[in-house]
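Ligand-bound model needed. adenosine-5'-[phenylalaninyl-phosphate].
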Amino acid sequence: MVIFALKNSALEAIERAQNLAELETSYKAYLGKKGELTLILRSLANLNEAERKVQGKEANDLRNLLEKRFAERKKEIQREEIVIQEKLAIREHVDVTAPGKRLPKGHTHPLTLAQTKAEEIFQTMGFTVAQGPEIETEWYNFDALNIPANHPARDMWDTFWLKPKNAGHLLRTHTSPVQIRYMEKHNPPLRIIAPGRIFRYEATDASHEFNFYQLEGLMVGKEVSVANFKAIIEEFYRQFFGKPVAIRLRPSYFPFTEPSFEVDMRWNKGAWLEMMGAGIVHPNVFRAVGYIPAEWRGFAFGMGLDRLAMMKYQIPDIRLLYSGDLRFLQQF
Ligand code: FA5
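Prediction:
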């Protein structure tokens, strides 16, 4: 009877144990040195042989059973504890009270800022934005612009030719070919700008890159003059820099304009800086696109977008624009 009661209470205690410490306590209470069952097993020696046989077997069976159950329960508890640990870990992982992680966010490159601003200003003055390919043919980059093969003016632009050379393809050396492409498809009067990337086989320094950006402009109409050109450029600079800017036209030479000039701009009442080439469209350019030269007049210009951005944001070296250096880029 004693053993039967002991069995029930021991099994119950095993089930009740919620953690390893509780289980250990129960284990000691029954099977430890002074545990209830241990004491019974010890007392067997005092019994006569017949009783010892019967009770000895019962007590030993119970000991085996309890040892087995304790071991099983121990494993169960260990498994449960692992699950609880995992749940806690997951809860930590989605802790809604943790401060959010800030994802690095990109932003507009200073060259793009300058280009977008320039486009906006010209658009308010009635100019459409046109585009052309960066890989050009000799015809669009040179011939149609009144620069035939073997003409010394081709040396004005050191060219990246594409292989094989005979194919007559090159990386455009200026945005002027877009003038031709646009006039081929549209009739005058017209006003366009053409911003884009260009390439020159040149050494680099603080104000020269071999890959840079230009913004071409072309206005064709019945009575387009240098005075119109000057007024539009002054208005452009006024809006772009947010204040009136003095400019001057200096005689120059381009095969596709006649007369031709360089436009300099005065920065902070200091030095005059060369900003663009420009001029009145040459009759041969109109001929190349099928316009009748006697009927139309136009001005064209090509400004360096990089230099414009450098002036606006006071960037001392053009190569910074292409460095990909975040310490530089994050200032804009
Ligand atoms: C031209 O490329 C002519 N197509 C411009 C033009 C268009 C004249 C229409 C007449 C009519 P030029 O090579 O001078 O011209 O270049 C024009 C502008 O590009 C320069 O004034 C300068 O601002 C910029 N530029 C020229 N070379 C570089 C360079 N290596 N790096 C950065 N900017 C440059």
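The domain at 110-329 is CATH 3.30.930.10 (BirA Bifunctional Protein; domain 2).
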